[in-house]
Every structure is written in structure tokens, then in C-alpha cells.
């Protein structure tokens, strides 16, 4: 808890004076209700190691990736979603650990990018899905990253589609506020290379950021922690100037130790970053994307599909080549 408070104070002092952090949608602090972060026992890295014990890469992948606390992503592949999130949060709760979950099923997902296209069949289907997602967690402590890329993926969308998406996100946040009182929800805010801070602050606010605990940065991307911290502070400056509040933020550090080379889709030469922890220039540094999972049919993952575990990519990412 002390680390988290120090990180928040550092972020505040990096911003202009007279900022006021908006109250969280929830009073409870899940980091103080648990004893460390949950290691997903069925991550793609864990499964690969278990299936390939004789592979020369298995030991390094097991030590450096598979046993690091990281997020589990939930979408259409997850089956009955309330059952899935309930089982995951329940298993973590039994071990007194804090799970990280990613909700990734918004209608028209990755509409402009296309590599991870899909999602719910309609806005109403998404409303049902996300309500069940939150209801499955119920009062267990959890961290949720809400819909990566959803606020950055505006380039080809009409205003009506943007309004529709922001409405879905606002409703999602309301569901967590109502049904999951011990969950911190972070509304995804893209990364420093996507939208300028003023634009992202407006999108966050219009999507209901006041109801969220905070916002997330760098999900599945490669920008350094320092770059993300500067960007998060700049977004907060804009939030304060325009709307009179700021929010904590978290950074995905799973693949950012070598920084970005300007490519986002399976670039070569990247490296795993700081493991999941409290503080580190943000409220938390989290592994949200599993190192070694493909971004799509591109780069060093040519021929793969998004989310597919690539052991050679994982192995090279441990050493940075």
C-alpha cells in the first residue's frame, strides 16, 4: 500500500498544481485485500511449457514468463462469461491473490485495425455480456482492464459509431460499479504513439472515466515505462484542465524493456519488461499481454493468428533479440 501511495504522490507532483483526483467508483482497495498478484495456472505460456518439457526453451520460458503474474483475457472464446470470470476470480480469491482480467469483447472490436476484429454481435449483446462479466466477479477483489484499443481505434469510425462505443463503455463501468464493489476497473487509453493527450482525455471522459478507478496504457505495446508515465501525466493534466479531476493509471510492461521501434505488430528485438508490481511511476506496472503471444499475422509472427503463443518469439523476448 505504501508503494502505491508513493507512486500516486509522485505522479501528482509531476503535474501542475491544484489537481484533484476524482474519487474511485469503489471505496475498497483490492491490493490491500490480497497478498500479491495471481499467477494464471492456465496461461498460454504455462500450457506450452507443460506440453513441451523437453524443449530447450522451456526452462527459460517457465522461469521468466510463465510464472510471472499476468492478465487473463476474456472474450467470445471464454464460454459462459459469468461462469468464466467467477471461476477465475474465485480461484485467485482462494489463494488470497489479486487477479488481473481483461474484458475484450466490445461490439466492432478493432474495427479500424482489423488484426483482432470480432467482439459481441451487437451493442445489446455486449451489454448483456459485460453485465455477466462483472456479475461473475461479484464482491471478490480484482483488477479489470476494460476493452484495450477501444478509445484509440477511432480513425475510420463515424461519429455515430464513436457515440455508440462510448455508450457501451459507460454502461460497462456502471455494471462494475453496481456488481463488483471490490474491483478496480481501468478504462484503456491506448499508448503514447496513438492519440495526443488532449484527444485521449476527451475520449476517456466522454466514455465515463469518472466511474472508473483509472485508465490503462501501453496494452500489447512496447513504449517504455518512462514514456508511458509522461503520457499518463499529460493525459491527467488535460483531464484536470478540462474536467477538474485526474485518475490513477497502470502501464503494461510485459514487452517494453527495449522500447518501441515504431512497429506495433510482432516487431523483432523487443524484450520483456518489469514484472507485475505496485508503483513504478504509475499506480501499478502490469503484465497485461502475455509475452510470446502473437499480435496477428505480421512481423516475426507471420503466419500466426492474434493470441497464438509463439515459443521462439517468447524465448527471444526474454533476451531481447
TrEMBL record:
Which PROSITE patterns did the record assign?
Answer: GLYCOSYL_HYDROL_F6_2 (PS00656)
UniProt cross-references to InterPro entries, sorted A to Z: Beta_cellobiohydrolase (IPR016288), Beta_cellobiohydrolase_sf (IPR036434), Glyco_hydro_6_CS (IPR001524)
Q: Return the similarity comment.
A: Belongs to the glycosyl hydrolase family 6.
Signal peptide residue numbers: 1-27
Gene Ontology BP annotations: cellulose catabolic process
Q: What is this protein called?
A: Glucanase
Q: Which Gene3D superfamilies does this entry report, sorted A to Z?
A: 1, 4-beta cellobiohydrolase (3.20.20.40)
- Enzyme Commission number(s) from the entry: 3.2.1.-
**One MF term in GO for this entry?**
hydrolase activity, hydrolyzing O-glycosyl compounds
